[in-house]
Amino acid sequence: MSATKHHVMIKGVKDGLVFLLNDACEWEALLQELQHKLEKTHQQILTGPIVHVHVKLGSREVTEEQKEEIRAIIRQKGNLLIQSITSELKTQQGGSEQGSSITTLKGMVRSGQTLHHEGDLLYLGDVNPGGTIICTGNIYVMGSLRGMAHAGVDGNESAIIAASHMRPTQLRIAGIISRPPDEWGIEEAFMEFAYIKEGKMEIDKLHHLHRLGPEALLG
């Protein structure tokens, strides 16, 4: 076999197969090798009962048409069922991949200031009354949150807002707005986080965050 045939790797995992597609090669070369491996070199593992397939594209950005080209090739094997086609930049649903990193910023958001951020944000400092943090991912304030915070601004209702000292004027997650802070029913405001439960915003102690599962931490 040619030495160039390393664009497609197929790995067995617990619930099926992962197709790892090289993100640096030409698209046509990638499709040709995928076709070759399905028809020739990997026939044995790709026959039999239904097998779930996850396709990982590395950091390659692809169009819906290109995803459909991948689907069409894999569908030729009737027992292969595609579960997901994802890249490290964006998932199929348009959110951040679970491996996305968190950005750390420090300072103070003063009255009249607005901090916009893409992704998850760890803010080391205070957000004063009249100050605002707006984020597409989760917001973690290691300080006093006494202004306004809006997480999951693009519509991600699984985003959370956490703060060392939680006394905001208002919280928003996706399109959902919190009740006034005096209706939260908490005596202390230390190490709290806000999250969406059944379409309503709830406030809880930060040490209960693990109950939401790992997705809350990973975005």
Automatic annotation (TrEMBL):
UniProt xrefs under Gene3D superfamilies: 2.160.20.70, 3.30.160.540
Keywords of this entry: Cell cycle, Cell division, Septation
Septum site-determining protein MinC N-terminal domain span: 8-85
Occurrences of domain Septum formation inhibitor MinC C-terminal (ranges): 105-203
Source organism superkingdom: Bacteria
Transmembrane regions: none
Family, per entry: Belongs to the MinC family.
PANTHER family: SEPTUM SITE-DETERMINING PROTEIN MINC
Function: Cell division inhibitor that blocks the formation of polar Z ring septums. Rapidly oscillates between the poles of the cell to destabilize FtsZ filaments that have formed before they mature into polar Z rings. Prevents FtsZ polymerization.
Subunit record text: Interacts with MinD and FtsZ.
Protein name: Probable septum site-determining protein MinC
Organism: Paenibacillus aestuarii
Lineage, highest ranks first: Bacteria, Bacillati, Bacillota, Bacilli, Bacillales
